[in-house]
Structure to design on (250 residues):
């Protein structure tokens, strides 16, 4: 069996018409079989994907873990490579992926990412190397259903680390950054409520300060100058928003 026949690329989408064609074309360097798990997009994403030869499955979105687990059930190849619509597989990464899947010691591989935020490559603040466990042996992987946002792979076996990168066009504008962070805050708040967490009065101050310090100082966001400061401050703000959501409903 040719190495490319051992892999299915899975892409989760919701209104990704601006990205999906280039994403699929880049992903074809790794595999012919590409599955789109779409959450009923209204901007033509499924039609573009089908025109590019991808298999489109539609599922109402509830959370990221369930979305990925549902997509895994549709995969019938030994390996699955999860790629986001705003990510691109480079030729160098494709070559490395096709090599490492022949190594029987590993059940999965962590992939580093270059994150571009509003057109700028960000190196500090936790944005690099930003390893993602995306290349998985199908029969050895699932997603923790209790982690609804920032999902976690449950891998039965050893994971290695790739050298080549995914290119991640993370946020094209600050408007998109705010929209996604609001969505993440709401999802994270739901998880915290399920865990029975109730914020104390000081939590609304202490947690944002902790997040800013972690991003800007501990993770060296300062090396990105103004961008690093802005990103640390915004993520601190959305930490506040998360706990505000928890306290408001609780």
């Amino acid at each position: 069996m040719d190495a490319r026949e051992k892999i299915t690329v899975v892409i989760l989408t919701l209104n990704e018409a601006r990205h999906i064609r280039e994403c699929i074309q880049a992903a074809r360097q790794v595999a012919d079989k590409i599955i789109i798990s779409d959450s009923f997009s209204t901007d033509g994403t499924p039609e573009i994907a089908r025109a590019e030869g991808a298999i489109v499955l539609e599922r109402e979105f509830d959370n990221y873990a369930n979305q990925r687990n549902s997509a895994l059930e549709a995969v019938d190849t030994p390996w699955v490579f999860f790629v986001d619509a705003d990510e691109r597989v480079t030729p160098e990464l494709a070559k490395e992926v096709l090599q490492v899947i022949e190594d029987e010691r590993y059940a999965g591989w962590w992939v580093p990412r270059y994150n571009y935020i509003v057109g700028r490559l960000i190196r500090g603040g936790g944005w690099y190397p930003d390893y993602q466990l995306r290349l998985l042996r199908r029969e050895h992987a699932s997603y923790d259903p209790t982690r609804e946002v920032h999902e976690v792979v449950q891998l039965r076996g050893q994971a290695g680390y790739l050298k080549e990168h995914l290119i991640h066009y993370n946020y094209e504008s600050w408007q998109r950054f705010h929209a996604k962070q609001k969505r993440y805050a709401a999802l994270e708040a739901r998880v915290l409520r399920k865990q029975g967490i109730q914020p104390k009065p000081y939590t609304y101050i202490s947690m944002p300060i902790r997040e800013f310090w972690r991003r800007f100082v501990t993770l060296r966001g300062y090396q990105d100058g103004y961008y690093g400061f802005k990103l640390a401050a915004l993520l601190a703000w959305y930490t506040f928003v998360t706990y505000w959501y928890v306290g408001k409903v609780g």
